[in-house]
Amino acid sequence: MAVNANTEERGQFGSSLGFIMAAAGSAVGLGNIWRFPYLTAENGGGAFVFVYLICVLFIALPLLLNEIALGRRSRKNPIGAVRETGGNKFWQLAGVLCVLVCFFVFSYYSVIAGWTVGYIVTEIINIPVDFSEFVQTPLYVIPLTFLFILFTILIVLGGVSGGIEKAAKFLMPVLFLIIIFIAGRSVTLEGAEAGIQYYLNPDFSKINGTVVLQALGQAFFSMSVGWGLMITFGSYLPKESNIIQSAGWIAGMDTMVALLGGLMVFPALFALLSPDYLTDGPSLVFNVLPKVFAEMPGGHIIGALFFLLLMVAALTSTISMLEVPVSYLIDDRKWNRKKATWVVGIAAMILSVPSALSNIEGNFFANIEFTFLSNPVQGFFGAMDFIFGTFAVIVICLMLSLYTGWAQKISDYATELSYGAPGFKGPYKAAWMFFIKWVCPIVIILLILNMVGIFGAPQAA
Asked: Which regions span the lipid bilayer (predicted)?
């Protein structure tokens, strides 16, 4: 009876549509709508977009297929997936890193998501907010972070089909409707043409090593490869599901949201403010866009919709981040879903506090400074983001591609991909195996070497 109870706790997706929506939701997040526009602004506009699309197609998509295949083949969480398929303790470290990454990133990512909740309220009641003051007010930021984590907990408590799948089927269409509406409003503003030109017309002379590095890092971040999310979701898939088709939809939806995210920002920025704001970096969305909305008729309503969009995008990602450690506790520790979800969720709340406080000038958590693999790290939030949100993700991608490509028989995973996808054979199958065995590991190794300064000054992706 214990085994059956645990199987019920684990759950399974009720449909391919549910899997696509949930997996696309985990990929679509703040990385697409908050991170993508400011990285585009910092790295040459259209040139960055062009390189990013190449990275998604030839690196991130093969890795996405790899993780889903490993998950479905093993029917386990990231640690159990490697163990179940015969991986020794060394290769199981990739699974351990997946669980740690999801937990730690969930804690600080929820702080940013909490900002979006606050901005929804301030836009609705039409009160201008100074971003730098807002993030330095823990009385606002910490309760908003806890509230957002609570939203995530309540959805994951519902299980795979009853909670995650139902939420994704509702949240993803809402997200697309809002983003299409705001992007449509942005591109029809008078003077928007200059922003569209900057964003979609690549100047190839601006492509250099830094642009390629940043685009590759963003492709990993936005497609949710290297987190164990896709292994976990893949483990809930029945054998007859078409992974190839589903992965195509996931990559397509994720990329579409990123591209629409840019169309929301750049045309409005050029039309209503000034290109000078392109240098605002990570604060671009929170600092600049409320000013843009203020210049539009009914702008506070559009602003509230925009930050609702950000919150929904964040929620679709944090649901899957929480599910990874929860699935580990259900599979390996035989906890029930309720206990696992509450324990991990409350622990994430506690860990989110230092990240929230690290935005306050002079605070202990803001003053933390050290060097990690030749890269200077500033603040607790910055440390979490670089170590877990960037470096560990890239290491996981490398380990998983080496594991399935070399430590295992790659043909077994290609066969797994062909179940439910009879067209995946011949040159398609051979191409995927070639990319996992050779192209992805070589590109990732070069990326890591560049990050630690082998080719010059260290550059974080």
From this structure: 12-34, 46-69, 90-109, 139-158, 170-192, 212-237, 257-278, 298-319, 340-360, 380-403, 434-457
Closest CA to 227 of 327, 141, 321, 350: 321
Number of folded domains that form the chain = 1
Single out the residue of 400, 413, 429, 28 nearest to residue 250, CA to CA.
Answer: 28
**CA neighbor of 322 nearest in space, from 225, 243, 227:** 227
- Opening angle at CA 381, ends 379 and 387, nearest 5: 95
Structure token pair of residue 249: 């939809």
Residue 257: name the closest of 143, 171, 346 by CA. 171
**How do residues 122-158 score in pLDDT, each as one tens digit?**
999 988 888 989 999 999 999 999 999 999 999 999 9
In single-letter form, the type of residue at position 204 comes to F
pLDDT average, residue stretch 375-387: 92
Q: How far is CA 359 from the centre of its chain?
A: 22
Q: Which domain holds residue 47?
A: 2-451
Using the structure block, give the residue that is written with the tokens 């993700």.
393
Each residue's pLDDT tens digit, 252-272: 999 999 999 999 989 988 998
Flag whether 456 is in a domain: no
Which residues of 294-407 form beta strands (DSSP E)? 369-372, 375-378
Sequence-distant (≥ 6) Cβ neighbours of residue 339 within 8 angstroms: 329
* Residue-wise DSSP of 160-223: IIIIIIHHHHHHHHHHHHHHHHHHHHHHTSTTTHHHHHHHHS--GGG--HHHHHHHHHHHHHHH
With H, G, I as helix, E, B as strand and everything else as coil, classify residue 459.
coil
